[in-house]
């Protein structure tokens, strides 16, 4: 089934994101290298928020993250403060917990509709499957950004 592959790819991507917590210090996660407008931890927070927006807001359901987190990492934002160790641990936990909740919601049939829309980058999303596929593409882009950032910290 296609959705099983999408979930598998998503979990693999998120495991790569998790490695950043073990390989980089709090200071390194927060560092914005010269020439960049964000940092490693912002990219992690952003992919969590973007997935919640793509899947949950797209289906008119409440997501599984606090509103203040959404506001900090939604598209169009950039880091405005140093992220604390406790906030970093929260993001670390959310990287995997939102996958579990999304899978559960999917297999329980909680996603009934999808509000067709165009992303900020011009991708047309007409279905929940489109949103899942775009989410994986989007997370791959941000992983690439992080690979660039880590060379300068």
How would you summarize this macromolecular structure in one to three sentences?
The protein has 153 residues and is an all-alpha fold.
Structure overview:
The protein has helices at 2-23, 26-30, 40-56, 67-73, 85-107, 128-150; strands at residues 117-118, 124-125. It has 153 residues and is mainly alpha-helical. It has one domain: Four Helix Bundle (Hemerythrin (Met), subunit A), CATH 1.20.120. The mean pLDDT is 96. 27% of the residues are buried.
List the helices and strands and how they pair.
Elements: H1 2-23, H2 26-30, H3 40-56, H4 67-73, H5 85-107, E1 117-118, E2 124-125, H6 128-150
Antiparallel strand pairs: 1-2
Helix pairs in contact: 1-5, 1-6, 3-4, 3-5, 3-6
- Oligomerization: single chain
Secondary structural class: mainly alpha
Computed over alpha carbons, the radius of gyration is: 15 Å
**Alpha plus pi helix count:** 6
Side-by-side strand order of the widest sheet: 1-2
CATH-derived architecture: Up-down Bundle
Number of strands: 2
Proportion in β-strands: under 5%
Order of helices and strands: HHHHHEEH
Anisotropy-based shape: globular
**Average of the residue pLDDT scores:** 96
């Amino acid at each position: 089934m296609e959705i099983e592959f999408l979930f598998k790819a998503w979990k693999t991507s998120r495991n790569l994101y998790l490695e950043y917590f073990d390989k980089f210090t709090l200071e390194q996660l927060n560092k914005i290298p010269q020439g960049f407008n964000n940092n490693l931890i912002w990219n992690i927070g952003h992919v969590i928020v973007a997935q919640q927006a793509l899947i949950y807001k797209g289906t008119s359901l409440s997501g599984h993250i606090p509103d203040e987190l959404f506001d900090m990492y939604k598209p169009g934002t950039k880091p405005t403060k140093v992220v604390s160790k406790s906030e970093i641990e929260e993001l670390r936990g959310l990287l995997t917990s939102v996958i579990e909740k999304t899978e559960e919601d999917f297999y329980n049939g909680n996603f009934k509709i999808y509000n067709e829309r165009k992303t900020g980058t011009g991708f047309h999303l007409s279905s929940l499957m489109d949103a899942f596929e775009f989410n994986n593409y989007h997370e791959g882009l941000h992983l690439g950004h992080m690979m660039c950032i880590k060379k300068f910290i």
